[in-house]
UniProtKB/TrEMBL annotation:
One of its GO terms (cellular component) is plasma membrane. This is Multidrug ABC transporter ATP-binding protein. The keyword Cell inner membrane does not apply. Its main location: membrane. Residues 22-248 form the ABC transporter domain. It is found in: Cell membrane.
Length: 301
């Protein structure tokens, strides 16, 4: 029996797979007569940050809702923290954290009171002062939620999602509306959750630069199928593309596109004449890779 078949059999029997926080095999979803997910397979290892990318309508939200236990799948095997999410109990849910795109409840609550109240539902919540400092809301602890700015409200959304020290955190467009400074601080927070708290994170975002910066691994979902699974560098190498070489010589700027940047740069540096300065090689970016894969899938469809 193949390793993947053994793992799938263990999922069906409710036995957790060591070192894996999320395991999905043959996930299918149908709404009426329309298939949204077509046999999706992927893993998320414990302590890993994985970004799920894809165009609108690709099936990202459906996949996440199934993993969170909020939607019943049409077929396939799914294990999240050792349980089938379709049968997850309250203790299991207490190990999950969810940061939605937007949440506008509890406007009359004060920030500190709300976090303290929500924390009582968990066995090992963050200390409220520690949590406020972690998300950059210490000065707003006494304010009513309804008076917070958009960026501050987004920080509160994050605080609510992690108040219970989740083992697995779902982030849905987490930095939407953040200014550059707030985005950088949030990225630092996510790195701390992964590196210090050993939190497993599944991130969905349309910000490819954010995914490239944060994710250990990237999944590209399109047309209800996983098109690619790997690090940003691995995905870039899987797509044939040209590299752009830029340099300056004798005060003049040059740009050249080539299939083999290594050979071109070697020949360039060996050329006689003025020395080469400001040499830069721009290889295929995650955006280039993503667009190429999605467009190829649309073409095949």
């Amino acid at each position: 029996m193949r390793t993947t078949d053994v793992a799938a059999d263990r999922v069906r029997q409710g036995e957790p797979v060591a070192g894996v926080a999320v395991r999905v095999r043959g996930l299918r979803m149908r709404y009426g007569t329309k298939d949204v997910l077509h046999g999706v397979d992927f893993d998320v290892r414990t302590g890993e940050l994985v970004a799920l990318l894809g165009p609108n309508g690709a099936g990202k939200s459906t996949t996440i809702e199934i993993l969170e236990g909020f939607r019943t799948r049409s077929g396939g095997d799914v294990e999240v923290l050792g349980k089938d999410p379709a049968h997850g109990d309250e203790r299991w849910r207490g190990q999950l954290g969810v940061v939605l795109q937007s949440w506008r409840d509890h406007a009359k609550w004060r920030v500190r009171e709300l976090l303290g109240h929500l924390g009582r539902y968990y066995p090992d919540p963050f200390d409220v002062d520690e949590l406020l400092a972690l998300v950059g809301l210490t000065e707003q602890g006494g304010q009513r939620v309804g008076t917070l700015s958009g960026g501050q409200r987004r920080r509160l959304d994050v605080a609510i999602g992690i108040v219970g020290r989740p083992r697995l955190l779902f982030l849905d467009e987490p930095t939407a509306g953040f200014d550059p400074q707030a985005r950088r601080e949030f990225h630092d927070l996510v790195h701390r959750l992964v590196d210090v708290e050993n939190t497993t994170v599944l991130l969905t975002t349309h910000d490819l630069a954010e995914a490239e910066k944060l994710a250990d691994r990237i999944l590209i979902l399109a047309d209800g199928r996983i098109l690619a699974d790997g690090s940003a560098d691995e995905l870039a190498r899987s797509v044939e593309g040209k590299a752009e070489v830029r340099w300056t010589r004798a005060g003049e700027r040059f740009v050249h596109t080539t299939d083999d940047a290594t050979a071109y740069v070697r020949d360039l540096l060996n050329e006689p004449g003025e020395p080469v300065a400001d040499l830069e090689v721009r290889r295929t970016s995650l955006e280039d890779t993503y667009m190429a894969m999605v467009q190829r899938q649309e073409g095949e469809r």
